[in-house]
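[stage:ingest] chain + small molecule (SAJ)
[stage:ingest] validated
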Amino acid sequence: MASKQPKVAVIGLGYVGLPLAVVSALKYDTLGVDTNKERVALINEGKSPVTDELVDKHLKKSGLHATADISQIADRDIILICVPTPVNGIKPDLSPLEGAIESVAKHMKKGVLLIVESTVNPGVCDEIVLPLVKRVSGYDEQDFDLAHCPERINPGDAKWDVTNINRVVGSNSPSGLARAVDFYKSIVKAEIKPMGSLKEAEAVKVVENSFRDINIAFVNELAMSFHKLGINLENVIDGAATKPFAFMAHRPGCGVGGHCIPVDPYYLIEYARGHGFEHDFLSLARRINNSMPEFTVGLLQEALNEVQLSFKGTRVALLGLAYKRNVGDDRESPAYVIRELLDAEGAEVVAYDPFVPSNSTVHDLDSALKDVDAILIATDHDEFKKIASLKLPSRIKVIIDGRNMFRHAKLDKKLLYRGIGSA
Ligand code: SAJ
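[stage:predict] done
[stage:export] tokens:
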């Protein structure tokens, strides 16, 4: 007899949970749960509240039903938790996760497979999630399975999505591991790698993102050094990247934003610190990346001095607020640090980001470039590429390229151009 198809629930319908819920709903009876009633209503109207090609394409036909009523998960066999795990300063904030777990544990039936996808530091599933589920549900460890499968969604990436990204899965039990691997293998056409424990699976995510952060810090430190040495770092990275092995190009910039890369290392730093180990290297990399907005504003200061301008009375077009190109997500964006530094220096800032209208001063590029003395690029949105071909107002004397997006462009010779790392 064919085994009964599991009923699935996905808790948290953001840029991680919604694509996952849609892909699950294409195969299983899937319920989406989110506390945001507007988001729930949009999804039930077949409209996506997130920018995601896969969701746009499949939401309607997936038949995904969403609700804000968590008690509806009582009949679910597999429950996936995809809620945010932000940091307050450098302290991980697990309250959204604990809240979701508590709500689920109140209603979940015996035998459930609970899968946490939210990014957590090693130890959270064993030391926080498991005891919380047992306390609130009254179940023993044998009454449910717990697994961790860290999310790997890359916002704005058209190539890699939830259906084709390799995954790692860890569990507190052989049955939990087998059930979770089977579930992911049924919806993901990619490698699903079983890990030896919950902790190993948690560690994979923080390690892969810390790897990215330290590599970005490496080129950012080189950028500050090569600025003094007068060496074009971007060209040097291009050169190093011709080595077909043992080199992975990362690029310098005005800072590291987003909800993953600048955040995840702190999970590991804090957890290890609590166990008597100080991650000096990870912490230094964080400090270097966090210093890049100040370095970028320093470049503007130097350039303004060269054209006999000072910050006071100078109008600066700050182009880009999002943390990376062509997305609207502005969490932990270095652009906001730059804006604060410019405000503190007495400059007048005109901010424009086509993807972040809510925090923009103006709402089109022409308005941003009118009556300003300098341009500072904080995000390399495609829309800004046309600056290279525009006849810029003669008042603009300086362009600071925080993403080196114009390093190959033929800009107006009258413009004083500075990139990151003498690009
Ligand atoms: N950045 C640099 N230099 C680089 C790469 C990035 O300054 O060489 C900056 C970006 O401008 C941005 C920040 O770092 O401000 C983060 O950029 P990101 O490309 O790493 O973008 P994220 O935060 O969306 O990272 C995601 C991660 N995916 C997951 O956590 C599931 C990360 O693991 C991926 O490596 C990354 O996408 C990717 O490769 O695009």
